[in-house]
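Following up on my earlier thread - several people asked me to post the actual chain instead of describing it. Fair enough. Here it is, all 191 residues.
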Amino acid sequence: PEQGRKNAASSAPKDEPTPAATAAPIVPTQPAAAPASSLVLQMEAPPSTEFDFALSLRNPQDPSKNASGRAVLQWQNLGSSYAAQLQLQAAGATLREWQSTGSLVDSGLQPTRFSEKRAGSSEQAVHFDYAKSAIIFSNNQATQALPAGVQDPLSSILQLGALIGAQAEAQPAAANFQLAVANVRGLEMWQ
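Reply from S.P.:
Thanks for posting it. Predicted structure:
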């Protein structure tokens, strides 16, 4: 894979940087072949890269906790698999780190493990077991059924960018998407 390149962008003043959502690591190669209802397309992942964003954290309840820093999104294309990492850094410390690893399949990303580490807390993880159709949580939550197309919070940003790009070429934009997302707190439907 190609060595990473750096791009800079500014993020809106939020807890989590929205510019990462524009960094879609999957490019549709056959947009017209998918039915409008499924958007399951043949996709090709781009080469490894890194994005560096300006980060501005705002706390309306306590402005003394406002901070500036950076968000670094790393994408590694490993052939038939991927690794992605998002770090939010301010005041010389990593405030939050997400890691997603998984397979690259025809429909995009298929995560196998997601982890989240917050400053002052231990790492928590989610495991996606496709053989058993189960989502397993490291924090002893009940195992849940693994829905088709499930993503984790980091892979969802990347996968959604690819789906929006594919849909723009295949048909007019839909009002919304629904995406099953498993995070360290459980399984949610994001819209």
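The helical segments are 153-170. That should answer part of your original question.
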